[in-house]
Design a protein that fits this description.
Chain lengths: 120, 110
């Protein structure tokens, strides 16, 4: 079955870096655009980044632009999110999601989420 | 990239209908038909319910329907059931090729 599994989260000090991974299975990963979406504790969903199916185009939320890099390795069926200069406000559950509409946001499959806590 | 505007909470009795609004601008909701609605139960990942304004994902009850007028999209849930109690989020594609979510609406079934 279609499955997305995030990993790489944990407790990190402010200013440090972290790379999240999202392992895909059960579908042709290289055919789909992918998103990262985050949710701070008790808050709503916040879109973070989008990467096209072939990695040729990437888009970022203004709130993370310049600190975050989305990437993918289609040979490994894996999506990544590199977050640098972590801030307390980056504390959130991070979800990866598959997009059926090539970036339009028809996100039909989500991972279970991975918690990132930024704290000294 | 301002969040789309949703009411913080709505409520309805079992069997009744409710509507959740999602207001944006001509750069997002009003300018595209890539509006989606998600249901999220506590501690769970969001679940896509409606996409492209009014299309239901396969397997989603026909009690859920979506529409759009100008810069405002709406989600209507008819015949409310206890299991509908959840948080609901709208999202829209934007003219900058990004996505934006609404602030979320907590639905309480009385």
């Amino acid at each position: 079955q279609v499955q997305l599994v995030e990993s790489g989260g944990g407790v990190v000090q402010p200013g440090r870096s972290l790379r999240l991974s999202c392992a895909a299975s059960g579908f042709t990963f290289s055919s789909y655009a992918m998103h990262w979406v985050r949710q701070a504790p008790g808050k709503g969903l916040e879109w973070v980044a989008l990467i096209w199916y072939d990695g040729s185009k990437k888009y970022y939320a203004d709130s993370v632009k310049g600190r975050v890099t989305i990437s993918r390795d289609n040979s490994k069926n894996t999506l990544y999110l590199q977050i640098n200069s972590l801030r307390v406000e980056d504390t959130a559950v991070y979800y990866c999601a598959r997009d059926l509409s090539s970036g339009g946001g028809r996100n039909d499959c989500w991972g279970q989420g991975i918690l990132v806590t930024v704290s000294s | 990239q301002s969040a789309l505007t949703q009411p913080a909470s709505v409520s309805g009795s079992s069997g009744q209908s409710i509507t959740i609004s999602c207001t944006g601008t001509s750069s997002d909701v009003g300018g595209h038909n890539y509006v989606s609605w998600y249901q999220q139960h506590p501690g769970k990942a969001p679940k896509l319910m409606i996409y492209d304004v009014s299309d239901r994902l396969s397997g989603v009850s026909n009690r859920f329907s979506g529409s759009k007028s100008g810069n405002t999209a709406s989600l209507t849930i008819s015949g409310l059931q206890a299991e509908d109690e959840a948080d609901y989020y709208c999202s829209s594609y934007t003219s900058s090729s990004t996505l934006v979510f609404g602030g979320g609406t907590k639905l309480t079934v009385l």
